[in-house]
């Protein structure tokens, strides 16, 4: 009997599919290296290295404010956007000048806002040659409570300002929990008031080492971490590199960057119902639509991963340029549909003061260029990309906000987050939940901690100082 060619092709394809599925389901065997305590600052390490923890306050000097105001006043007329395009070609220049620039110049109360930004205790300490700035808030009334250190990490183009509303929700004891948080919120190296590296190579995994050393300096041996955006990536790298020190990681941006996941999403596109309930298919499929959406929104990522210093020139010299560049991300990150609004919907979830506080942190510290280098240091080679996808064995929580940039189904997240304790589908919110929905985020952090905290783990703590 002749075997029909159709049968042969079908059988071949079937075998190839089975083998592929077998291959991509193999657990990752990536070897996690020991990373060195690289000296990122000027000069070289010496025994005199200052290990003190110094109090710090943000300062807007008169000269800085006058200079900023004169630049804002001299903002040129910006090209009006094309009719009916909203913010889809980028920030609406007419709106930016009439609204944001005007507010910053005439209504933003520099003195009051500075006092607000200094409302929490802040410190600096030198780690691997870098002065690292951090907010440190200890809870009050801790009788009968375990005090758990929680390191929270911001991303780009955010700053520690993202956490001002969230912090008191974490440091105020709750009757039904026997623990409360002590919050450590650093500025990432190169961001805000933390100094930046003088030599190349300080990417996400190297920042994980810096953050671990910061926690050691503060004598925290075991702690929780929380983060979104780059903060989530760095929390993940810390979990991979230092699993014995992390009690759990709570992420509001659980991402999958490995080829295997992309390929699985592709395979499931033939049978999406095996992966997702029908009402969620649109979150991943059709792939073509999501691919082009990603392409349209990630131009900034490509330029920052390749030529951050070039973009940085305009952004660090013009406050209007900085505002236009950063606020476009706050618009789209909050809700992609805001792109069609005249004002980018930026006041839907944020006040002008909040948005400008964050801009002030970049402006006063002149750190936009060095902040963008994180993309280059983490993404500009294939070997760096693959390091981002090490598996994570530490207990993990993923808070999924509906307007987050990407959606990943729990079934796929389990490939990377091997000890996934909870996945919460949030009712509202986007890429900046600490600012947009601090209560939802805080509740989820408490819930995760209650599910994972075991006071015996904390008592194993050895306090060895770095
Ligand atoms: C840009 O903003 C101006 C001022 O707010 C507004 O009048 C105009 O309609 C906006 N243009 C677009 C394309 O959204």
Characterization of the model:
With 466 residues, the protein is α/β, with parallel strands linked by helices. 44% of the residues lie in helices and 12% in strands. Helix 16 (410-416) links the parallel strand 8 (396-400) and strand 9 (420-425). The chain is globular. The model has no long low-confidence stretch (mean pLDDT 92). Pfam families: EHN. This is Epoxide hydrolase. It is a single-pass membrane protein. GO terms for molecular function: cis-stilbene-oxide hydrolase activity.
Chain-wise SSE layout:
Layout: H1 5-24, E1 53-56, H2 62-73, H3 93-107, H4 110-117, E2 122-127, E3 130-137, E4 146-153, H5 167-171, E5 179-186, H6 204-217, E6 223-227, H7 229-241, E7 246-251, H8 259-268, H9 287-297, H10 299-306, H11 308-317, H12 319-334, H13 352-365, H14 368-379, H15 382-387, E8 396-400, H16 410-416, E9 420-425, H17 433-436, H18 438-452, H19 455-459
Parallel strand pairs: 4-5, 4-6, 6-7, 7-8, 8-9
Antiparallel strand pairs: 1-2, 2-3, 3-5
The structure holds 2-acetamido-2-deoxy-beta-D-glucopyranose (NAG).
2-acetamido-2-deoxy-beta-D-glucopyranose binds next to helix 3.
């Amino acid at each position: 009997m002749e075997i029909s060619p159709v049968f042969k092709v079908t059988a071949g394809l079937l075998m190839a599919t089975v083998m592929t599925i077998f291959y991509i389901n193999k657990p990752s065997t990536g070897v996690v290296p020991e990373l060195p305590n690289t000296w990122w600052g000027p000069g070289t390490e010496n025994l005199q290295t200052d290990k003190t923890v110094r109090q710090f306050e943000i300062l807007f000097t008169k000269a800085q404010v006058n200079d900023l105001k004169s630049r804002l006043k001299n903002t040129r007329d910006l090209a009006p956007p094309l009719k009916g395009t909203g913010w889809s070609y980028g920030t609406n220049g007419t709106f930016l000048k009439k609204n944001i620039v005007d507010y910053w110049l005439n209504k933003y109360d520099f003195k009051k806002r500075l006092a607000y930004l200094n409302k929490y205790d802040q410190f600096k300490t030198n780690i691997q040659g870098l002065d690292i700035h951090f907010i440190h808030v200890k809870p009050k009334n801790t009788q009968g409570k375990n005090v758990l250190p929680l390191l929270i990490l911001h991303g780009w183009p955010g700053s520690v300002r993202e956490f001002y509303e969230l912090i008191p929700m974490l440091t105020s004891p709750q009757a039904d929990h026997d623990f409360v948080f002590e919050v450590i919120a650093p500025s990432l190296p190169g961001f805000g008031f933390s100094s930046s590296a003088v030599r190349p190579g300080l990417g996400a995994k190297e920042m994980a080492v810096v953050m671990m050393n910061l926690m050691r300096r503060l004598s925290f041996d075991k702690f929780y971490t929380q983060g979104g955006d780059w903060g989530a990536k760095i929390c993940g790298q810390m979990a991979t590199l230092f699993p014995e020190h992390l009690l759990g990681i709570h992420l509001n941006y659980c991402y999958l960057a490995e080829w295997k996941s992309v390929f699985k999403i592709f395979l499931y596109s033939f049978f999406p119902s095996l992966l997702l309930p029908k009402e969620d298919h649109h979150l991943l499929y059709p792939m073509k639509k999501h691919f082009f959406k990603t392409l349209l929104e990630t131009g900034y990522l490509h330029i920052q991963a390749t030529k951050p210093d070039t973009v940085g020139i305009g952004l660090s010299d013009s406050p209007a340029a900085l505002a236009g560049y950063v606020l476009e991300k706050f618009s789209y990150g909050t809700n992609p549909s805001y792109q069609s609004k005249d004002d980018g919907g930026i006041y839907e979830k944020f006040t002008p003061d909040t948005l400008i506080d964050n801009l002030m942190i970049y402006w006063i510290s002149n750190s936009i260029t060095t902040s963008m280098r994180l993309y280059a240091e983490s993404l500009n080679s294939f070997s760096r990309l693959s390091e981002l996808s090490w598996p994570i064995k530490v207990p993990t929580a993923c808070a999924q906000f509906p307007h987050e940039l990407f959606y990943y189904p729990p079934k796929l997240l389990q490939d990377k987050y091997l000890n996934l304790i909870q996945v919460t589908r949030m009712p509202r919110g986007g890429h900046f939940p600490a600012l947009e929905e601090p209560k939802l985020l805080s509740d989820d952090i408490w819930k995760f901690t209650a599910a994972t905290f075991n006071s015996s783990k904390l008592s194993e703590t050895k306090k060895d100082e770095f």
